[in-house]
Amino acid sequence: MFYRTATASQQTVASGRQSSVLHRLAPQLLAARPSISQQHHLNAASPAQWSSANRSAALLGLTRAGSLLAMSCLADEAMAASYTEEPAVATSSFAAASAVATQLPAEGNGKPASTGPMLLASGAFVLPHPDKVAKGGEDWYFIAANHRAVGVADGVGGWSEVGVDAGAYARQLMGNAAVVADESTASAPDAQVELSAQEILERAYSQTTVRGSSTACVAVLNGDSLGVSNLGDSGLLILRAGKVAFHTPQQQHGFNFPYQIGSADSMSDSPSSAQRFEVAVQPGDLLVLGTDGLWDNCFDEEVASVLKYCGEQKMEVAKMAQVLAHYARHRASDSKFASPFAYAAFQAGYAYMGGKMDDITVVICQVQQPAKL
């Protein structure tokens, strides 16, 4: 169900703007729609065959993506004001964006050879669950002041059942990660200091003192090599020339039970359990970091289509993050959408249809050469 209803005047304005957006967006969305033969194959497939290799054929709901994306691109004021259960200021109060850039070091130690320094232009947007707007949701993120490290974290909601703020751990963890990343380069801000995503995660974890637990994904750019440490079901996607080049796999103990790090009384996993990756990147690549509120509601191909449209509209990365978050919210609200979460539930033996309402945090970074920023 949708959690907001536009006024009559807003609906009139929205209708005209949606038509314009849909007209421009329709060709690429139709191109991404599964063919009749693909749909037949999907219907005949067993749950074990529903894997990332054929998820593009599973996008039966993508035919409606045009209208959903159009809704996401409407005036932010109208979108926020149309909520009936939350104040108009809520969306912007917990959203944040930052354009960042710096000169990055050359690679070594057997990693891909650097072609020279590259930069990140980054933006972030946090869209809390409609029921958690007052406290800002349970997700958070960081973009370090040295402009070389980013991350997202998703607080485990079960803590609220015992009177603990489930978002406090994620917020402190990400705040600590930002400090650790900055301290790593503070002594030699102009030198080519290599950052480690895993070290940032582990040191931030050791400094986090509040009760709770969360998933986490941290990424750092060293030259043209991206280091990633991901624990749980948050994650990072790389888009190159509009195509999916890389996506971190999820770490799950069981269905809807991701790996997590937390306080001593949380019986959580060790940060050393994080999966670690080194991926060569190129100028123009888009990095998409998100909590499970994004990945449970959007297939990779949908994310690529939305950001392709954003790029064609010359949007800044902060606006891209905002549009993608709202797109995921619409998917979460669709009770008839065969979402990634629904497919995962089916594979685990549960009957479930629709998106999954949740906090949604998106960080988008574009790899750029210095002259481009």
Short account of what is shown:
The protein is α+β, with helices and mostly antiparallel strands and 373 residues long.
Give an overview of the whole structure.
With 373 residues, the protein is of the alpha+beta class. It has a single domain (8-372), classed as Phosphatase 2c, domain 1, CATH 3.60.40.10. It has 11 helices and 13 strands. Strands 2, 3, 4, 5, 10 and 11 form a 6-stranded antiparallel sheet that branches. Strand 4 (213-222) and strand 5 (225-231) form a beta hairpin. Helix 6 packs across helix 7. The termini are far apart. Mean pLDDT is 76; it is low at 1-67 and 70-114.
Q: Low-confidence stretches at least 5 residues in length (pLDDT < 50)?
A: 1-67, 70-114
Number of β-strand runs: 13
Structural class: alpha+beta
**Terminal-residue CA separation:** 41 Å
Calculate the mean pLDDT score and round it.
76
Q: From N to C, what is the helix and strand string? A: HHHHHEEEHHEEEEEEEEEHHHHE
CATH topology: Phosphatase 2c, domain 1
The main pleated sheet reads as: 6 strands, antiparallel
What is the H level of CATH, i.e. the homologous superfamily? PPM-type phosphatase domain
The CATH class: Alpha Beta
Count of domains: 1
**How large a portion of the residues is in β-strands, by DSSP E?**
15-25%
Rg calculated over all Cα atoms:
20 Å
**How much helix, percentage-wise, in residues?**
25-40%
What's the architecture, going by CATH? 4-Layer Sandwich
Catalytic activity: O-phospho-L-threonyl-[protein] + H2O = L-threonyl-[protein] + phosphate; O-phospho-L-seryl-[protein] + H2O = L-seryl-[protein] + phosphate
Keywords: Hydrolase, Magnesium, Manganese, Metal-binding, Protein phosphatase
EC number: 3.1.3.16
Protein name: Protein phosphatase
